[in-house]
């Protein structure tokens, strides 16, 4: 009011009422939309905890590490799913991290400039393939291939390790790990690529000028320069893997038995248990327990993503990859 | 006199070999990723060929166990779901971007961007459960009518996936609109809201369209948000969003686990249509975005 009163009358007359309302209106509308994003996040957290509350009350915090999931007796625990989620996701990152870093190095340091962008685009297109299609492929192409070729080989060579014991199967933990690897490579390599691009030319050239080979430059200069960022890139990929429901459900076998010691066995994850039980008409307590699985999944992915985003934000990347 | 050899020996030789190996590993890794895309697309192409027919687009499912039939209801349903989702996500996403770029202070803007990333990082199955709790299981359903699944609920779930994607890209494109354009507009005495709506947005319209296209491509293939919100549907083409509608990804998901070979084949055919749509639109959008990025950057 005060400011308005002291405004020269000439200026005030030129500011149409419509413009004043318009300015205020657009600002309010835009701010409301931004606030809506926060409201939706809060609502998701709240509705999930709210929906899971009876089960949390009933089973207590022990729900997280209780082993049984038995709809018949009405006893539910999340342990096997938590283990499944962690094993498949970390397993996938074990494969995807070195591959992604190598791909990013190829795209920034090694490839002839003319093919860098086309190949980077192709790798990103891998992320655009819908997960249900990757899962379909996992069922009919990858699964049989794993059973007939990869798993017999692993079991012949490393069968003495419990991880690779047992008979090969076309649906199981290892197939899920490979599917998740394929699905996380695009995001992890896209972030790594932009990290490597952010390394100043000077330091690389200085290293080359000192007589270092390309590999020594990469290992001694490029990678150390963005080390924290690489960890964040892998964590972002991990977040993707932790939350993937559809493709994993299609290939992991959805077993309710204890999570197998062997990677050839069938298992289940938090997300895949949710996705596979959508058609059953569960009892109240089962439904609430399912939502509790969602709460655990949300907590895990939220944690890993926030940490990763905070680290990545430090590097001020271009984010052209759309991740 | 002994001839001096330029051949690397000893330590130098080891370093050079190490370098070669490292380069080879990187090349192989890149080849692996590209090959994976090739194998995926190739498998879908090869297996879809038999089942791709006009019936796929025009007919509903055949009687159980019989050959023939199609997934026309899924194509119609997906179009409606995407329409609902876009109608919500496009205005909200663009408004968020306008807020971040034109109104918010730097610190607030950074916070909003962080929220968008957080939302983008939520597992899509969790978003499905959220909407299920909100629309299907709630005592007072906020979305859709009654305690049952509906296209409203499914479209709403998809819009939550789309908003961060639309916003992030739009923010980036709005930031590329040159300051001079805004200042020229202000210098002419034009108010802020008119500047935003008639200078900034029209300049960035190409980018906004691409951002939406990318988000649509992503949402079209999302299965998880629909499982709990829009997955129990009939066999005939329906356009009623108050009820649950079939969708291409959910059909692929169900048919992929069916023991019926005919349905498996239809899953591959549907996957082919989906993958073709998604890859072509996101590739085209990517190219257009890159173009408008360069164009705006030059002004």
Structural account:
- The complex is a heterodimer of chains A (323) and B (299).
- Chain A is built from 13 helices and two strands.
- By secondary structure, chain A is an all-alpha fold.
- Chain A has a two-stranded antiparallel sheet with strand order 1-2.
- Chain A starts with a helix and ends in a 10-residue tail after the last helix.
- With 299 residues, chain B is mainly alpha-helical.
- The chains are: A mainly alpha (323), B mainly alpha (299).
- Chains A and B meet through helix 3, helix 4, helix 5, helix 6 and helix 7 of A and helix 1, helix 3, helix 4, helix 5 and helix 6 of B.
List the SSEs and their pairings.
The complex is a heterodimer of chains A (323) and B (299).
Chain A: H1 2-6, H2 9-14, H3 17-59, E1 69-70, E2 75-76, H4 79-110, H5 113-128, H6 131-158, H7 173-197, H8 201-209, H9 214-225, H10 227-243, H11 246-252, H12 270-276, H13 284-313
Antiparallel strand pairs in A: 1-2
Helix pairs in contact in A: 3-13, 4-5, 4-7, 4-10, 5-7, 6-7, 6-11, 7-10, 7-11, 8-9, 10-13, 11-12, 12-13
Chain B: H1 10-48, H2 54-58, H3 72-103, H4 106-121, H5 124-136, H6 151-176, H7 179-187, H8 192-220, H9 224-227, H10 248-256, H11 261-298
- Main interface by residue count: A-B, 95 and 98 residues
Major sheet of chain B, described briefly? none
Mean pLDDT of chain B: 87
Tally of domains of chain A: 2
**What's the level 1 CATH class of the largest domain in chain A?**
Mainly Alpha
Main sheet of chain A, how many strands, which sense, barrel? 2 strands, antiparallel
Q: What is the helix fraction of residues of chain B, given as a range?
A: over 70%
β-strand percent of chain B reads under 5%
Q: Write the H/E string of chain A, N to C.
A: HHHEEHHHHHHHHHH
- Helices of chain B, by number, come to 11
Mean pLDDT of chain A: 87
- Given the structure, what is the number of helices of chain A? 13
The computed structural class of chain A is mainly alpha
Q: Report the CATH topology name of the largest domain in chain B.
A: MetI-like fold
The geometry of chain B reads as flat
Q: What name is given to the CATH topology of the largest domain in chain A?
A: MetI-like fold
Uncertain residue ranges of chain A? 1-7
C-alpha end-to-end distance of chain B: 67 Å
Oligomer: heterodimer
CATH class of the largest domain in chain B: Mainly Alpha
What is the strand arrangement across the widest sheet of chain A? 1-2
